Amino acid sequence: MLRDSDFKEIDLGDKEVFDKYISKKIHDNSEFNFTNFFIWRHHYKLNFSIYENHLCIIGQYRNTFPIIFPPLGAQESGFDNALMALVEYFKYKGYPVIIKSITEPIKEVMEKSLPGKFKYKHDRDMDDYVYLSEDLINLRGRKYQKKRNHINKFLNRYTYEYEPITNDNIEECLIAEIEWAAGRPKDNGIEEEKVAIVEALRNMEALGLQGGALRINDRIQAFSLGEVLNPNMAVIHIEKANIEYEGCYAMINQQFAKNSWSHLKYINREEDMGIHGLRKAKMSYHPIKMIKKYTGHLL
Predict the structure, then answer these.
(1) Fold exhibited by the domain 128-270
(2) Average pLDDT over the chain, rounded to whole?
(3) Which of 88, 50, 83, 51 is nearest to 69 (CA)?
(4) Would you say the pTM of this structure is higher than 0.85?
(5) How far is Cα 232 from Cα 142, in angstroms, rounded to an integer?
(6) CATH T-level topology, domain 4-126
(7) Can you give the residue ranges of every domain in the chain?
(8) What is the pLDDT of residues 140-186, one digit of tens each?
(9) Between helices 145-157 and 248-260, what is the axis angle to 10°?
(10) 265: buried, middle or exposed (CB in 10 Å: 19+, 13-18, 0-12)?
């Protein structure tokens, strides 16, 4: 049985452990990625343990109930034992058994190995948006006319330079994010996002991230961070831009895809978290597919 002492907080030195159990060959869920677990570890109170050769992660966001993530391992063998160990641990602690971020393949494994034990509900707010890289780069066709218009306005109004994020400009990106966050209304979500972005920028090399930035009037006005999620797909963790520069978001989106991810077929731009404006923006880029996710409840 799992006990409190079996779990530990996530730190940067755990990347090798996570990478061992999170198979880049099979997962296209943006959440199953060390960077996401690491930069959000404090806000989601994430802890992990290794059980039956599976990575077992639990968390809790603000005042909600604690949650379980599906056990992650290179093989199905041991999955059911690891999952049931987490279930028994939650029952022992008196928590309701809630399993988040269940993708279609994991749902199939759960139904096969533990039939009839869980009910599943589609969690639309957490579905990942996946695009063809060539679509985000070329923006061809009538459906991307508005995006091309945004970029053309940007090009007509501003003189810019695109540059990769390196040690030479990371501090400028940090300063830009802190200034932008300070100018927005006080909100827990904004503060949490700022901390996550600072974590990502401060640890870019160790996390294996790539980044790109737009410089206008000798200042960083937009930047984006991402990495390879699997052999065919990149994942974009962060995208920030100064909205005072019209078309800035469209430009960093297109330029980062072009300069960093043209060799990969797909780009995963993560979920919209149920935020109306974010959903509208992500749908406007016409995803080629969605990575559906479910929440599981013990029956």
Answers:
(1) Aminopeptidase (3.40.630)
(2) 95
(3) 83
(4) yes
(5) 27
(6) Aminopeptidase (3.40.630)
(7) 4-126, 128-270
(8) 999 999 999 999 999 999 999 999 999 999 999 999 999 998 888 88
(9) 100
(10) middle
